[in-house]
Amino acid sequence: MSFGVETEFLDPASGVPEEVLSLLYAEGLRFEGADVTVLLRMNRRPAATASLDGQVIKMVAVDPEYRSMGLSAQAVSRLLEWARPRGMGHFFVYTKPSEADKFESLGFCQIGSSPGAVLLEMGRPNAEDFRRGLEELRLRVGVEESSAIVMNANPFTRGHRYLAERASSASEHLFVVVVRSDRSSFPFEDRIRMVRLGLEDLGNVTVVDGGDYAVSSATFPTYFLRDPSMEEVIRIQTRLDLDLFGRIFVPALRIRSRFVGTEPYCPVTGLYNQAMREVLPRFGVQVVEVPRLEEGGSAVSASLVRRAMAEGDPRGLEALLPPTSYRYIMDNWDRLRERVLSSKGGH
C-alpha cells in the first residue's frame, strides 16, 4: 500500500457506491458494469477508481485534487494484482489519449485509436500474434485479395445468408468474421456453428473467429448496451473498433472490400455503418452496402427470431432462418430459448 492510500475492492453486483459514481460523473463517465471495482482513498476521502470487466480495465477516474499523484496508475496496478492470482494475464485499457502515457509506464502498448479514445494492451497472445495468425490463415487459403463481413449472427438468419451470397459472388474470397464476445442472446459457440453450417456450401468463404479485436468488449463495449442516448460515446468507439480492423484484419487478410447490410432498425448499428464509410477508405477498403433482405414487407432481422423464441412460438421461424439455423435452433430449443429469455444484450 502506498503511504496514505487505502484500497477497497468492491463487487458491483452488490451495488455501486455513490463515491464511485461521483468520481465517474466528474470525469464525464458512467458506470457500464464490471466484475470488480477498486476504490482508492486518500485520508479516507474517495480519490480514484477503476474497474475490470472481463479483460478490460475501464472507468478509470481520479478526483482532480489528486491528479498529480499517479493514482490512476495505482488503481490499475491494484486491479492487475487482483486479477493475476485468478489466472488472468491479458488485459486491455480503454482510455483518453491524454492518459495513455500513464498506462504505457505500466507496460501497456497502444494498439488502436480514435478521436477521443485509445486502446492499450498488455500480455500475450496480443494483437500482433492475432494478426500473424490471420495472415497464416490467408496464406493457407491461398488468396491475394479478399472481402470481409463482420457479423454477430445472433442468430444466423436468411438475411445474413443473403448478404454473404452477395459478397461471395462479388469477391475472389470472402472472410466472414464472427464477433466472439459472449454478451449476446446466443452464445458464441452456437453463433459461429450456425454461421459455418449456413455457409459451408459457398466454396470461396472462410469463417473466422473475431477474437478480442472485432466488435469486442474491449473495442466497442456500447455495441452490447444498445443505448442510442450514448451517441457520442458510440461515435468514438465505432471509430476505434474500425481503426483496429484497419490495422489488424485489413493487412493480414488483404481486404479490399467490406460488405454490410443496410440498417433500418438499430441506431447503434446505423452509426457503425456511417463510421465505416468514413474510416475504412483510409485503409484502402471500399464499403459496400447491400439492401436488407425482406420478408412480408419487413427486413429479415435476428431480433424477430429472438422475439418469437422469447414468446415460445417457433411458427414463422422458417421464413426468417436458413434450413441449417432452423434445424440447429429446434434441436437445441430449450437451452437456447432459456438463454434468450435471460439475456439482456440488444444484439
Automatic annotation (TrEMBL):
GO MF annotation list? [citrate (pro-3S)-lyase] ligase activity; acyltransferase activity, transferring groups other than amino-acyl groups; ATP binding; lyase activity
Name of the protein in question: Citrate lyase ligase
Asked whether the keyword Lyase is assigned, the reply is yes
Which InterPro entries does this chain map to?
Acyl_CoA_acyltransferase, Citrate_lyase_ligase, Citrate_lyase_ligase_C, GNAT_dom, Rossmann-like_a/b/a_fold
A Pfam entry, by short name: Citrate_ly_lig
Where is the N-acetyltransferase domain positioned along the sequence?
A: 1-127
- Tell whether DNA repair is among the UniProt keywords: no
Kindly give the NCBIfam families that the UniProt entry links to this protein: cit_ly_ligase
Give the first-level EC class, as a single word.
ligase
Keyword list, A-Z: ATP-binding, Ligase, Lyase, Nucleotide-binding
So what EC number does this one have? 6.2.1.22
Question: Which species?
Answer: Thermanaerovibrio acidaminovorans (strain ATCC 49978 / DSM 6589 / Su883)
What the entry lists under PANTHER family is as follows:
[CITRATE [PRO-3S]-LYASE] LIGASE
